Amino acid sequence: MKLQQLRFLLAVVENDLNITAAAEALFTSQPGVSKQIRLLEDELDLQIFVRNGKRVVALTDAGRRVVEHASRVLQETERIKSLADELRAEDHGTLALATTQTQARYVLPDVIGEFRQRFPRVDFHVHQGTTEQIARMLDDRQIDFAIVSGSSEPFPDVTMLPIYQWDRVLVVPEDHPLASAPTPPDLETLSRYPLVTYVFSDRPESSLMTAFSTQGLKPRIAFTARDADVIKTYVRSGFGVGILAGLAVEPGTDDDLAVIEIPELFPRLTTWIGYPKDLLLKKYHCEFIRLLAPHLTVNVIEAICSGSDAAPPGGWPAELEIPLRNGGK
Predict the structure, then answer these.
(1) What's the mean pLDDT in 40-47?
(2) Which superfamily does CATH assign the domain made up of 168-261 to?
(3) What residues pair up with 257 in beta bridges, in sequence order?
(4) Which of 278, 266, 10 is nearest to 144 (CA)?
(5) Nearest to residue 15, comparing CAs of 39, 33, 1, 3?
(6) Do 168-261 and 93-165+269-305 fall under one CATH topology?
(7) What's the whole-model pTM score?
């Protein structure tokens, strides 16, 4: 039994047993209404309407009782919807998220600042960790949102929305040989230098290591860190060539470093925001997503805020263009 069948049943009764009028009121076809009514009667093993040929002329005694119950069911359904709307409309509560250092340092401060101006009654909590730690926090319901980069595979039961894409860049001291090279290095050239990059980038399955191994190369990973600022500190000390997110290079602060763009060397990465599929998204949750990912289409935002899975079975809509955020000097 489906709610749609009960709605069709009540529409027929409310339109004086005129199925054509009921179909017009429901913005559907008359055969569709008739079919659903028949399916309901078959499932209940009851005759709801008295018919004269194809025309409905009256309700049976059983039909009147079914209509009474159907009316109560749909009223309760509307009350549940109203309750959900009321809960989502709350402008106070708690919003907790976990993310990596790069997002916490270079992306979130402006977004959180604007959010707190709009929702001063919402307590905001930010946790920093690795992707694995963030996945555990989300699984343990310690946080509402996870903001991570790379693959969304560690989050199989989570709705994942793309925020932006980014490329890696090389950073070296200005007197480094690569800084004065006429063209960016290829992977073979890069493999000759000690490298300083993010934790887990040295794992065989990482996109960085895969790029080297595909060409039969083994990079010299000299140091890994969770913090982009730590990577830049070791680069300044001459420890190695830094590989980090382009958005982690700050004009003014990092002017002593040469930045080399290498979009052809490594795959472009995506940063995602994820939340449990059964999370009741309140108004302030939805507004935070709007602030963080303003490129999301109206249809996607409406799907998010209505509680349905934002990513349709066929994938993201063609008009959804994920912005590129590289920053840099």
Answers:
(1) 87
(2) Periplasmic binding protein-like II (3.40.190.10)
(3) 173
(4) 278
(5) 33
(6) yes
(7) 0.67
